[in-house]
Amino acid sequence: AQSVTQLDSHVSVSEGTPVLLRCNYSSSYSPSLFWYVQHPNKGLQLLLKYTSAATLVKGINGFEAEFKKSETSFHLTKPSAHMSDAAEYFCVVSRNYGQNFVFGPGTRLSVLP
Amino acid sequence: EAGVAQSPRYKIIEKRQSVAFWCNPISGHATLYWYQQILGQGPKLLIQFQNNGVVDDSQLPKDRFSAERLKGVDSTLKIQPAKLEDSAVYLCASSPVGGDHTGELFFGEGSRLTVL
Known about the structure:
- By secondary structure, chain A is mainly β.
- Chain A is built from no helices and 12 strands.
- Chain A has strands at residues 3-6, 10-14, 19-21, 23-26, 32-38, 44-50, 56-58, 64-68, 73-78, 87-95, 99-103, 107-112.
- In chain A, a hairpin with a 5-residue loop joins β5 and β6.
- Chain B is an all-beta fold and 116 residues long.
- Chain B is globular and about 45 Å long.
């Protein structure tokens, strides 16, 4: 069985400050891990993915995430928040790279001017 | 490249009525998924197709929900009869098999259902 925990339901940062969105996973298999972003009334968009290659993964819009097996974590970071980053972020785990996608509950990111 | 198309974008019905949602995946994507996203929650898988076969429908409430993908391309999700708790956004996603984007989900904008 697989599961995802996103430790914060809501994160608020000031524009220009770092962003940290936390994700912990549980999987009986070697997982593939993803971060998706959902802007209001828009479809989900892939930010980045980990598939057993480099543990530090770079994505779109300056986001990156680090896979830490010992901590079963896949936290999302960005050095400097922009107003356009305000959205809902979902951490996702899958098995066999395309099977059994399980979404976390999401973290809403607010960016203050 | 055209994205995943869904219709209708919005639907309001009364409980016990029926509703159908349509999805056209990205051309060439063999795998198609329907997810239910209730307000404030992450998407939950309802059904996964590989071509026109069902891979996983373990979380589909089969007494009221049905889905088909007859020719391995577009798909329809039906709810009959609807309940209040079916109010949600129904997301369709597709995924290629093979290539650089294997295993990635490409989502449509969703169909928002309100049951009164």
